[in-house]
């Protein structure tokens, strides 16, 4: 049987982009359906942002307990119930995805279960159903990129999804290939839980998109914690002997090769868009050579009533970018004057300390022709950081010398993501460094480091000699 259902809007994919779009469109009075072939919440809630943060927090508990010895509190060796740890993490995911389903119900968004595929520009097949709609939003996200010599079996060679299931016993030796956010977050999780961890990275710095000073300071701190990091290094392949993985690593500058032994290898070399099986050709939706769907500022594809948002349209592949684009697409479809016109999208590596930034790096600002001024504030001068016993890190603010406008901030600090938003607001409001300096910040807080970095641009920081 064929059910023909008509909606104002059909959203394909219920990840952070898709569910934000569906709910906003429903709030604005549209009749909305959202097709999802897996669990609502997408990568972010199920196998991305949320479960990684749960594991990071658990690992941080162990690090915190060891660290407390510095101030006279000694705990015993941690006892780990790995089944309980995995269960706790899965419980958080379940609560959040249940929350998305409840929001769909409350907003009268129809959840269609199944894989969606365009039959023509106005009809989508979802499972066995044909669904017609006036507008569509493609929010199908992304999946881990392959590294052919390391085929993922989710046991010994894992991608980010496999790495979320902490095995019992823990791998003794854990290798992460790729020092982006995902590789480094898992490196710290496994390190804190008790594995011996190395991260390798092809590029000459960790988190290649980050400001070089911030990335280098960050790498130094992670190394000090005991995580080995080999930069300018690639993994060529491995052989398995007696259950051990003998991995061939190569120094990309000298060509020198060596073999190291691991028990688990994480492949975290990037993500690719999920655009291949959607029937985009019959809908007239164009993708670029890497499979990303091209969109304009209103998030319209080459077929104007079909919109696309989130990871499937390109970098940065971040949940909050997907959410914002989802809201824009929904508002445009509902007839509002909305477009994706943001000054900056924050980026964060959620380790301890965090590496977080928003706006331009120093190199980007110089390349754009600004006369750049920078102001640093080291956490070692922050009273609050001292009370946390975590004084490694800094805030680096970047401004335009001619206008005093804030151009960006790069933070290596615990909880950096929570006080980075201030600089995001400054960027959106075209605030000056002076505006930040004139704002009273609560004492003692880590956020005062942003204030002092701003003051230091004008050589007026109180706590810098
Ligand atoms: P997705 O979340 O990928 O969702 C797409 C959905 O579409 C999926 O549910 C999929 O099942 C569904 N779908 C696909 N094709 C079809 C089809 N044909 N029919 C029906 N349904 C379909 N970002 C952050 O901002 N902060 C973080 O801390 C963070 N941590 C991360 C950690 C890890 C380990 C990973 C892997 C990613 C992390 N990300 C993080 C990135 C973040 O998860 C993504 O940017 C975000 O999920 C993208 O949202 P999306 O809506 O575009 O797509």
Cα end-to-end separation: 77 Å
- Overall pLDDT level: 97
Main beta sheet strand tally, sense and closure: 7 strands, mixed
The total count of helices amounts to: 14
The Cα radius of gyration reads 24 Å
Structural class per helix/strand content? alpha/beta
Bound chemical compounds: flavin-adenine dinucleotide
* Helical proportion, percent range: 25-40%
Number of strands: 22
Shape: globular
The fraction of residues assigned to DSSP E strands is 25-35%
Low-pLDDT stretches: none
Task: Please characterize this protein's 3D structure.
Strands 1, 2, 3, 4, 5, 6 and 17 form a seven-stranded mixed β-sheet that branches. A five-stranded parallel β-sheet has the order 8-15-9-10-11. It starts with a strand and ends in an 8-residue tail after the last helix. By secondary structure, it is an alpha/beta fold. The model has no long low-confidence stretch (mean pLDDT 97). It has helices at residues 16-27, 42-47, 49-67, 82-106, 160-163, 181-193, 212-225, 280-283, 319-333, 362-367, 383-388, 416-428, 433-437, 448-457; strands spanning 4-12, 32-36, 110-113, 116-120, 123-126, 129-138, 142-144, 157-158, 173-177, 196-200, 228-230, 233-241, 244-251, 257-262, 264-267, 271-273, 306-308, 347-349, 354-359, 372-378, 394-400, 406-413. The site of flavin-adenine dinucleotide has 35 residues, from α1, β2, α2, α3 and α9.
């Amino acid at each position: 049987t064929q059910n023909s259902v008509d909606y104002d809007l059909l959203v394909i994919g219920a990840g952070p982009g898709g569910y934000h779009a569906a709910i906003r469109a429903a709030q604005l009075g549209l009749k909305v359906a959202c097709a999802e072939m897996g669990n609502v919440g997408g990568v972010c809630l199920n196998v991305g942002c949320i479960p990684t943060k749960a594991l990071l927090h658990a690992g941080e508990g162990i690090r915190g307990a060891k660290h407390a010895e510095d101030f006279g509190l000694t705990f015993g060796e941690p006892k780990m119930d790995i089944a309980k740890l995995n269960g706790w993490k899965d419980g958080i995911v379940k609560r959040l995805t249940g929350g998305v389903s409840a929001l769909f119900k409350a907003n009268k968004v129809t959840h269609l279960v199944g894989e969606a595929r365009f039959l023509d520009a106005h009809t989508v097949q979802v499972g066995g159903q044909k669904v017609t709609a006036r507008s569509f939003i493609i929010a199908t996200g992304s999946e881990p990129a392959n590294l052919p010599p390391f085929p993922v079996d989710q046991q010994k060679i894992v991608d980010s999804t496999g790495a979320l299931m902490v095995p019992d016993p823990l791998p003794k030796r854990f290798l992460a290939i790729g020092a982006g956010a995902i590789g480094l977050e898992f490196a710290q999780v496994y390190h804190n839980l008790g594995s011996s961890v190395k991260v390798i990275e092809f590029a000459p710095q960790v988190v290649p998109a980050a400001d070089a000073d911030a990335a280098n300071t960050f790498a130094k701190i992670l190394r000090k914690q005991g995580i080995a990091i080999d930069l300018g290094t690639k993994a060529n392949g491995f052989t398995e002997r007696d259950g051990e993985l003998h991995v061939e690593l190569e120094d990309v500058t000298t060509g020198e090769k060596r073999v190291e032994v691991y028990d688990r290898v994480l492949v975290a070399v990037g993500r690719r868009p999920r655009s291949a099986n959607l029937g985009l050709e019959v809908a007239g939706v164009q993708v670029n050579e890497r499979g990303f769907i091209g969109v304009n500022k209103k998030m319209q594809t080459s077929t104007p009533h079909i919109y696309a948002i989130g990871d499937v349209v390109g970098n940065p592949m971040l949940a909050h970018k997907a959410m914002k684009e989802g809201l824009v697409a929904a508002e445009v479809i509902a007839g509002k004057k909305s477009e994706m016109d943001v000054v900056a999208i924050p980026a964060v590596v959620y380790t301890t300390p965090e590496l977080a930034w928003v706006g331009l790096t120093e190199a980007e600002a110089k390349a754009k022709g600004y006369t750049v001024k920078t102001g640093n504030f080291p956490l070692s001068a922050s009273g609050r950081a001292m009370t946390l016993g975590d004084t490694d890190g800094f805030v680096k603010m970047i401004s335009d010398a001619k206008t005093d406008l804030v151009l960006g901030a790069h933070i290596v600090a615990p909880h950096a993501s929570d006080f980075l938003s201030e600089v995001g607001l400054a960027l959106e409001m075209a605030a000056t460094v002076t505006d930040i300096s004139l704002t009273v910040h609560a004492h003692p807080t880590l956020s005062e480091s942003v204030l002092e970095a701003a003051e230091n641009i004008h050589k007026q920081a109180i706590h810098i000699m």
